[in-house]
Amino acid sequence: MTDGSECRIERKLSGDTLWISVCSHYKGEKTGIRYKAFPVFISNDPIDPYIAYRLIEPGYESWTNMGIYQRELASFKESAIVTNSANNKGCVNCHTFSEGNPKKMLFHARGAGGGTVFVSNGKVSKTNLATAGPQKQGVYPSWHPDGRFVAFSSNSTHQCFTRNDSQPIEVYDTTSDIILLDTETGEITAPKVLCRESVWETFPGWSSDGKTLFFCAADAVDGMPENRSEVHYRLMAIDFDGEKFIGEPHSIFQSDSLSVSFPRCSGNNLMVTVSSYGTFPIWHREADLYMLDSTTGTLSEAEALNSDETESYHSWSSNGKWVIFSSRRTDGRYTRLFISHYEGDGRFTKPFLLPQKDPQENILRLKSYNIPEFITERAECLDKNVSKLF
Amino acid sequence: MKKAIAPLLLFTAVLVSGITCRQYTFLQMENLGLFLNSSDYFRDLFAEARPISHLAANFLIQFFNAKYIGALIEAILLTFVAISCRNSFTRFRIPFAETLAVTASCAVWIISAVRNDFSLTVSATLIASAISVISLLFKRREYQFSSTGCAGNSAVIAVALLCIVLCGKIVNTERWSKIEYCAMRHDWKKVIDTATPELCKQDQGMLPYALLALSYDGRLPVEMFYYPIKNQGSLDTEGWDSQEGYFFGYLLYDCYGCTNEAIHQLFQSSSYLPFGSSFCTLRQLSRLCFQAGEFELARKYCTILDKSTLHRKWVRSFISQIEQAEKEGKARPESTSAESSTASLITHDSSFNTAALISDGLYSKPMVDRMLCSLLAQRNLTAFKKLLDSQRALYGDELPSSFKQALDILDNPMAGSAAGANYINYYFSGTE
User: Fold this and answer.
1) Is A142 helix (H, G, I), strand (E, B) or coil?
2) Which of A194, B137, B264, B417 has the fewest CB atoms in 10 Å of its CB?
3) Model ipTM?
4) C-alpha distances in Å from residue A131, one per residue of A93, A114, A175
């Protein structure tokens, strides 16, 4: 214990509740303290066996070692899916899995000879989206539920640094659009309604039935980054008929004092990250997680999940019962992962930190967890195959 | 006893040259080194080439933070290599076993010093140990002393010693290590003594350090133009996309009190290091975060340092400072999103940033000295006079010589170069 006493932890399983009690005593003394037992409720809802995330130093412009890793939730085993030793110490990012299946995934590999790497049933290939079709770089991806299409945002992203504010970095776009890749034909389209110059479209996210693409959009603002507080992203939606987008995008939620990021759907549940302005909310301490009420079109705060520090990227488990999200509540700088159970009606249980074999690992790790995603099975290590592409 | 002559000679040569010629090289190795008892550290270590050598080297480098220990450890290892190889070569019946062993050890010494890579010495030690083990399969043979061999060994050691002492690369490494080490500790006098005008002529990279040291020693306006200044870019390394360039940036912004930017530059510098971090990085991050009132982060870096072998005392002392500061309520208050959205931005132009800080009233005399001298280096005397007039109170009645000369030029633009007038000479050398 922090007061120097020794402690013993006792666990007792009673039905669906694990009772944990802590006894402490000072060495040599005959008496001690038994603290009141506290419960850990065990849910009947299964959780996906693995999660995937990137490990990267928190912020700035360069890096040493980075990689996309997976963690088995039933144990403490962590292993690499792909590291940047495969692409000559370049950047690997934006990993995403089709319906949580690691046999069908993609990620970007930046640096010399960079491109987007597609993995499909053991086959690995690389495409440079910036040189194909409409020649727009693909950034934030989202797989259509049918596994055929991938929507990408195409962003011109910059960062600026503050002198001595408690928010040291601001990341902002000066332009962004949404493009659509058909993985069967290789065709990339840039629909005009999602590529308007006067609007910055970003963060695509499909509905569970694949009939709607949600995304975020803000009116273009000149004079960035000085005018960054004027940028407010609204939540938008456009219909999709399985081949192409139809109709015009329509606004689901907008506000002059809030900005929306990362729409993520599970069934009828839609979760977003909300900050006061701008995009890339991980650097905004006020960023929190919200749920959209689909009947009223209002956003309500997922209070149980939020803290005084940043809550940002989130994703749903395959059964829609669990959510994993990034939070900087432990020290304000290094992102750690929290898991919560969804009770329904917009309610969540108290989130718990991703368990480690030694709790001190959360402090000792000098990297942040980035883009946590549930995956339905173990991913093979791709380093050897990916390195052949570079 | 005769058996010990060559090893003793070698040990003494390595030790003495290490103490006299490479003291700061070893100290800086510790600064840039890292050894942590943590799973992430070991995973990254074993993903690289020669993990065992690097593990042992990184462990030993921790001890280099004390003066002369680096030299001592290197002397011990190289002497072990020589003795080990001698015994092995003797068992293998290789002729001139001792001379060959001493030569091998000296070769490792030189290569390791030239490449500034202590892990090579450790690798050689491990290889010599492995060969020793193999040699046990062979029959033991008695050591045969010969005076010719002894003379040969002495000659080899003497040549190696000369190479170490005279090798330009090793000398330069030592100079740079001294400059960076002393600059980090704000020992500006040693930086000035090392980065002299003559040396800066040979190696322009030293100039920003010399000028920064002069700023903080109060001598910049007096002595700047005795250095080989080309233009205002001589004052900093901004735009140098390298570990050393970013390290200088960290020093500069730390001196300015721009904690966020100092941390930014430190992270950038560290990204060039094998583990993305180092003992120096972690110590400085602890200090900078403490300074900024980010106590949880400062505590985190201390906890990480506590996983090394020798930082326990340092960590305990620092943690108690944090606890004291917390009791006094010195944690950084959180800014609101409204404040963050309008917070002043830092650019990649250090001159611009310096000017912005001064105009925001966040200045110190060293900062104003640098800004004024930067304007002199640009030959922008109008802006120089304007700034000087606004900051006149810092200088009182007695202006530094280069300032007086600049004002003289403004009064009498037709005046030419003059002996002893180092700024006037600089000014007109660029306008001809």
Assistant:
1) strand
2) B137
3) 0.89
4) 19, 11, 18
A136 token code pair: 């727009």
Distance CA A26, CA A5 (A): 5
- Distance in angstroms (rounded) separating the CA atoms of residues B190 and B178: 8
Give the DSSP letter of residue B181. H
> B312 with B306: CB under 8 angstroms?
yes
* Binary contact (B47, A83; C-beta < 8 A): yes
Instruction: State if pTM tops 0.80.
Output: yes
Contact state of A331 with B341 under an 8 Å Cβ cutoff:
no
Q: Which residue of B has its CA nearest to A331?
A: B296
Cα separation of A129 and A137, whole Å? Answer: 5
Q: What is the pLDDT of residues B58-67, one digit of tens each?
A: 999 999 999 8
The number of C-alpha atoms within 13 Å of A152 and in the hemisphere containing its C-beta is: 28
Tell me: the pLDDT tens digits for A181-228? 999 999 999 999 999 999 999 999 999 999 999 999 999 999 998 899
Do the chains contact at B297 and A333, CB–CB below 8 Å?
Answer: yes
Measured between CB atoms, which of A65, A228, A364 is closest to B44?
Answer: A65
Q: What is the mean pLDDT of each run of 10 residues along chain A (390 residues)?
A: 80 92 87 91 95 87 88 96 90 94 95 90 90 86 96 93 81 95 93 95 96 97 92 97 94 94 94 94 95 84 95 97 97 95 93 93 91 97 92
CB contacts of B276 in chain A (<8 Å) are 57, 63-65, 366
- Is the Cβ pair A333, B38 closer than 8 Å? no
In angstroms, the CA B181 to CA B185 distance is: 6
Question: For B335, which of A65, A166, A334 is closest by C-beta distance?
Answer: A166
Q: Which secondary-structure segment (H or E) carries B309?
A: none
Comparison of pLDDT for A118 and B333, the residue scoring more:
A118
In 3D space, the residue among A359, A353, A329 whose CA is nearest the CA of residue A339 turns out to be A353
User: What distance, in Å, lies between the first and last C-alpha atoms of chain A?
Assistant: 50
Task: Enumerate the residues of chain B whose CB falls inside 8 A of the CB of residue A332.
Answer: 294, 296-297
